[in-house]
Amino acid sequence: MSETKTHKITLIPGDGIGPEVTQAVVRILEATGVKFDWEQFAAGAEAFEIFGEYIPQALYDSIERNKVALKGPVTTPIGGGFKSINVTLRKKFDLFANFRPIKLLPGLNSHWPGVDLIIVRENTEGEYVGLEHEVVPGVVESIKVITEKGSTRIARFAFEYARKHGRKKIHSIHKANIMKLSDGLFLRCARKVSEEFHDIQYGEHIIDNTCMQLVMNPYQYDTLLLENLYGDIVSDLCAAFVGGLGLVPGANLGHDCAIFEAVHGSAPDIAGKDIANPTALLQSAILMLRHLDEEAAADKVQKALETVYSEKKCLTRDVGGTCGTTTFADAVLQAMA
């Protein structure tokens, strides 16, 4: 743990249950002994009501200055309204790698105990570039963009992570049998990068087959390398192996900037009731601590979280307990102490 450094972090609580789970996580982080200076901002509909902008310029400036942000869930309208805050921030700061580890917490039941997957998703290209328009009434054209630069750097990220952390196998997931140019380019870039990493086994699977194989036997996979849309879908599918989106962390990483976020929704139906599970954001915050080179603090929080789950004394309702957001955070704090 750093003895003198204060980490300036941009904090985006979000909406719905966001402020509740964010407050719980901030309490836990501050109990580690690491020094934080939080710069808090609204985003989305709440920000628009206050500032007339969905992402205030001051929020952009804060992330640009601090290079690290912690973000709760923000509601994105479906089929209309403003653009996704998540996608907008990823594109703005070139956060090209979406990183999601999938691992079961102790004490929880799963049809796939011991599953241990790393999902590496290209985060700025594909269908999510937002290039779509109505050609004529009733006909919409949506453009998928794949580049050599984007495909190469996400492949390199995956292989470098795998080597550093002792992962032995990477599969590129694609639909190049149909999208021969776009997905074909993605595959060619991954193959080229793989030639530099002879210590890591490399394979390729078609996306639809991958989904079937994951449900039948996820143990055959280690690290999955995917384009944007495929990664979005598969990362949520894999979250089901360990209890759902309320439990898994997420990180959006660039060369000099990172946003760590809860990947679940804002759940407005339970907002303000002190029953939401802060685990997903807390696990994302643990990733943030490691990103900040605060490994001892990260280990401390991880161990406390695992203790609370293994003892099953104070879990939230979504995982079979009766505790609320605040009392769950209290239990983690007690385990840390």
Structural features, described:
The protein is of the alpha/beta class and 337 residues long. It folds into two domains: 1-103 and 244-337, Isopropylmalate Dehydrogenase (3-Layer(aba) Sandwich); 109-242, Isopropylmalate Dehydrogenase (3-Layer(aba) Sandwich). The protein is built from eleven helices and twelve strands. The chain has helices at 18-30, 45-51, 57-66, 85-92, 148-164, 182-194, 207-216, 228-239, 279-291, 295-311, 325-336; strands at residues 6-12, 35-40, 68-71, 97-103, 116-122, 132-136, 139-142, 169-174, 201-206, 223-226, 249-253, 258-262. Strands 2-1-3-12-11-4-5-10-8-9 form a ten-stranded mixed beta sheet, with helices on both faces. A two-stranded antiparallel ribbon has the order 6-7. A hairpin with a 4-residue loop joins strand 11 and strand 12. The model has no long low-confidence stretch (mean pLDDT 94).
CATH architecture of the largest domain: 3-Layer(aba) Sandwich
Runs in which pLDDT lies below 50 for 5 or more consecutive residues are: none
- Strand-and-helix sequence, N→C? EHEHHEHEEEEHEHEHEHEEHHH
Largest sheet at a glance?
10 strands, mixed
Question: What's the CATH topology label of the largest domain?
Answer: Isopropylmalate Dehydrogenase
Query: What share of residues are in beta strands?
Result: 15-25%
**Class derived from helix and strand content:** alpha/beta
- Helix-residue proportion: 25-40%
Task: Tally the helices.
Answer: 11
Quick one: how many beta strands?
Answer: 12
CATH first level of the largest domain: Alpha Beta
Q: Looking at this structure, what is the CATH superfamily of the largest domain? A: Isopropylmalate Dehydrogenase
Q: Return the average pLDDT rounded to an integer.
A: 94
Q: Major sheet: order of its strands?
A: 2-1-3-12-11-4-5-10-8-9
Form type: globular
> Distance between the terminal alpha carbons, to the nearest Å?
16 Å
Oligomer: single chain
| Domains, number | 2
Taking Cα atoms only, what radius of gyration do you get, to the nearest Å?
A: 20 Å
InterPro entries: IsoCit/isopropylmalate_DH_CS, IsoPropMal-DH-like_dom
Family: Belongs to the isocitrate and isopropylmalate dehydrogenases family.
GO molecular function: isocitrate dehydrogenase (NAD+) activity; magnesium ion binding; NAD binding
Pfam families: Iso_dh
